[in-house]
Amino acid sequence: MLKGRLGLDTARVPHADRHGLLWLERGELNVIDGCLHFASGRHIDQIPHQSVSMILLGPGSSVTHDALRLLARHGTLLAAVGADGVRTYTAPPLMPDRSSVARRQAELWGNPRRRLAVARHMYALRLGEVLPHRDLDTLRGIEGARVKTIYRLRAQQFDIDWDGRRYDRANPEAADLPNQAINHAATAVQAAAAIAVQALAAIPQLGFIHEDSGQAFVLDIADLFRDDITLSIAFAAAKEAERSDQTVDRLMRREAARVFRKKAVIPAMIDRVKQVLRLDEKLEDNDGAGRGGDV
Predict the structure, then answer these.
(1) Rounded to whole angstroms, how far apart are CA atoms 185 and 53?
(2) Judgement on whether residues 122 and 182 belong to the same structural domain of the protein
(3) What pTM value is reported for the model?
(4) Range of the domain at 266
(5) Is 201 within 8 Å of 102 (Cβ atoms)?
(6) How far does the chain reach from its first CA to its final CA, in angstroms?
(7) Residues 141-194: pLDDT tens digits?
(8) Helix (H, G, I), strand (E, B), or coil: what is residue 203?
(9) Could you tell me the strand order of the sheet in which 35-40 lies?
(10) Could you tell me if residue 287 is inside a domain?
(11) Do 125 and 240 fall within a single domain?
(12) Any bridge partners for residue 80, and if so which?
C-alpha cells in the first residue's frame, strides 16, 4: 500500500485487524476533494483512511478539523505519538465500530474466577511456568522476588553496576543512571502498549493485575515485555550514557526505536492482547459464563 511513497511501505505496522496502522510525520493531514491526504514538503499523498485501522501522527505534524471529521466518520483511530512511537500523547475516541473485544474483556474481568485465571495466565507468560497459587498478593510477591533476580542478571549482561531498583516519584532524576534509564524505558514500552490496546478497542481501565490506574490494562501488557524489552533497552542506553555526553533519555529513545522496529514490538503486543483475552475462542452463553471455570 502506497509502496515507496513517504516511506509508508516500511513505516506500516503489520496488523491482522482491518489493514493495519500507518505512521506519518513532518507534514499536514488534511482533506482534499473529500479524501484524506498527507502533505509533506512538495509531496501530497492520498491516505486510504477507510481501510486503515489507526494512524500514528509523529513529530512535526499537524491535522486539520476536516481530517478529524473524516476520520471520525469512518471510524479510523488517530493517535499523536512521539518520535518512533516511544511516547503516546493523545488518542481521540475514533475507535473501530465494534465492541467484541471490549465485551470479551469485560466478561473476563467481571467474573472473579475468570479474572484470576487471566492474571495467572499473564504471570505464567512472564515467569515461564503456571504457578499453583490463586491469590493475587501471593503471585505479586513471587513475581517481585524473581524480578529482583532478573534485574541483577540483565545488569550483569550489560556490565552495569546495579544496586537495586529505586524510584522516587517525587524526584525521578535523583535515581542513579540505570534506574533513570529504566524509568524512561518503561514509559516508552507503556506507550507502545497503549497503541496496541487502542488499536484493538480494548478497555484500558480494566486491568487484570493492575487495578487503580486508568491505564491498568496497558500496564498489564507492558509488564509482559518488561524482562526482554524494557530492561534491555534501559541497560543498553545506560551503558552508552556512561561513555557519551548525550542524556540517557535521548539515548533510550534511540535504542527503543531500534528495538521496536527490529522486534516488531507493537504487533507483538497486539497479538499478546488477543492471546490473554482468548479472542480466538467463542464467547459462552450467559449461563455457561456463570458456571464457567478458568479461562
Answers:
(1) 26
(2) yes
(3) 0.72
(4) 100-276
(5) yes
(6) 38
(7) 888 888 889 999 999 999 999 988 887 666 666 678 899 999 999 999 999 999
(8) coil
(9) 43-46, 35-40, 28-32, 62-63
(10) no
(11) yes
(12) 57, 90
What distance in Å separates the CA atoms of residue 65 and residue 61, rounded to the nearest whole number? 14
Tell me what the mean pLDDT of segment 107-119 comes to.
Answer: 93
Residue 129 annotated as binding? no
Give the Cα separation of 102 and 92 in Å (integer): 17
Three-state DSSP at 36 gives strand
Tens digit of pLDDT for each residue in 8-29? 333 333 334 456 788 899 999 9
* Residue 290 belongs to some domain of the structure: no
Per the DSSP assignment, residues forming a β-bridge with 78 are: 55
Whether residue 125 is contained in a domain is answered as yes
To the question of whether residue 143 is assigned a binding role by annotation, the answer is yes
Three cell numbers, residue 88:
503516546
**Letter for the amino acid at 66?**
D
Q: Is 88 helix (H, G, I), strand (E, B) or coil?
A: strand
Q: How far is CA 260 from the centre of its chain?
A: 10
Residue 289 is placed in which grid cell?
459464563
41 lies in the same domain as 117: no
DSSP 38: E
Within a domain: 3:
no
Same domain (yes/no): 169, 259: yes
Q: Distance (Å, rounded) from C-alpha 192 to C-alpha 183?
A: 15
CA angle 274, 280, 285 (to 5 degrees): 115
- With cell 541483577, the residue in question is 152
Is there a binding annotation on residue 25? no
Same structural domain, 220 and 123: yes
Cell 494512524 locates to 55
Considering the domain architecture, whether residues 271 and 189 belong to the same structural domain is answered as: yes
